[in-house]
Amino acid sequence: MKPLTLIFILVCVLLTHVSSANSTKSNDVAGSWQGTLTITPEKSMDLIFHFKQTSDGYIATIDIPEQQQFGLPFNNMSYINGQISLAMDMAQITYDGTLKDKKIIGTYEQGAFKAPLNLVPAIKTVERQRKVQDVVGDVPYQVEQVQFVNGSGGHKLAGTLTYPKGSIKYTTILLSGSGPTTRDADVFGHKIFAVLADQLTRQGIAVLRYDDRGVGESEGDYANATSEDFASDANAAYQFLREYGKRNFGKIGFVGHSEGGLIGAIATANNAKVDFFVSLAGPGTTGAQIIIDQSYYIQKLRGMDDDKLTKDDKIQKEIINAVVAGISKEALIALLLKHDIPEAQANAQATQLTSPWFQYFVKSDPKIYLTQVDIPMLALNGGLDSQVLPKQNIEGIQQSVKPDLLTTKIYLD
C-alpha cells in the first residue's frame, strides 16, 4: 500500500484469522496458485494463494515470499460456479476472480489500491527460510498444547505451555501487540514469541503463549475486540494457570509487547493476584499521542522538510483529536477530503479510524492502569523504535508507577 503523508495509520501486522468458508461440490480450485502483483511501474511482488477444501468448505491463505510472510489466512472465501471472492478484513484486502481454462482472472484490492492480478497453477511453492534462532529438535523442557476458556466471552483460546522439568518459581504469560497474532508471533518470517518462550524456559521460567481470539486455533471475534477485551483474555490465561492441576506455576505475571504493554497494564489493574508485569516497548502515553508522535518521527526520518513537517503534524493532530472526540465516519471522510486525501483512500481510512479497536486505542491512557500497579514492574524500550517512541513512553511509565517497584531501561543499540 502506498505510504500516506497526510494521515499516518498505526502500523500493525496485516494478518487475520480463518473463519468459515462457503461450501461447494467442485474442487477444481483446490491447490496452489501464483501471480505477480504490479504495485508501481518499478515495483512488483509475487504472491502465492493456497486453496484447501475441508468438510466445511474452502479455506484460503496467501504467501508473500519477498516479505517472508507465509500462510496469511483470509477470513472469508466464497467459491461458487467458478467465481472466487476472498476477504482479509483486518488488512482491508479483497480478491475477486473467475476460474476459467486453468487460470484465475481477477482483481486485487487493498485499501485505496486496486490492480489486476491473474493466477496460474503454481509450479513450485516457497517455504519460510529457517532462522538461526528457530527452535528445532529436542528441547530440555516440557511442551504442552493447551486450551482454556474466557468465561466472560465464552470462547476458547488455544496456546502452547512450556515449563522446566523441575520446580517452577516463575511463569510468564506473553501478550502480543497490535494486529491479529498467533502464539508464535509470526512477523516477517520470524517467530518472536516462540524464540522468547524457548529462551525463558531454558532459564527455568515457564511460559504460556496463545493465539489471539479469532486467530489460529482460538475462538472469538477479533475484528470487534479492543485492548480491554484482550486484557480479559489475558486474565483468563492467568486463571487457567492457577487452576491447572498438573503443576504449581509459582509466581505468575504478564509480559506484554507493544500494545501488549497496554493490555498487560489493564489486566494487571483488574487482577490483584498478578505477581509481576513486564512491558516490552509498551506505551506510557495515550494512544492518540503515540500515533501523533510516531507520525511526526517517521515523516522526519523520511526526510520531510521542516515546513511541511509542521503542517503535516498539525493535520495529524486535527484528525486524531477528531477521532478522540467521537467524530462520525461520514464527518471524518469529509475532514479527510478537506485535506486532499483521495475519496477511495478517505473511505478506507475512515473505516479503520472509526473501528472499535482504533476508537478504544486512541482514547486509552495507560497511566490510568499503571498507577494501580502495586507489584514489581520492568519496562524495556528500544532506542531506535519508531512506533512506540522510547523517551516519552518510558517517562510516562515512570510518572505512573512507584519508583521502588519499577525498573526501566532504554536499549540504545
TrEMBL record:
Record domain Serine aminopeptidase S33: where: 193-282
Molecular function in Gene Ontology: hydrolase activity
Annotated keywords: Hydrolase, Signal
InterPro entries per the UniProt record, alphabetical: AB_hydrolase_Est10, AB_hydrolase_fold, Hydrolase_4
SUPFAM superfamilies reported for this sequence: alpha/beta-Hydrolases (SSF53474)
Tagged with keyword NAD: no
One Pfam family, short name: Hydrolase_4
Signal peptide limits: 1-21
PANTHER family the UniProt entry points to: ESTERASE ESTD
Name recorded for this polypeptide: Alpha/beta hydrolase
UniProt organism field: Psychrosphaera algicola
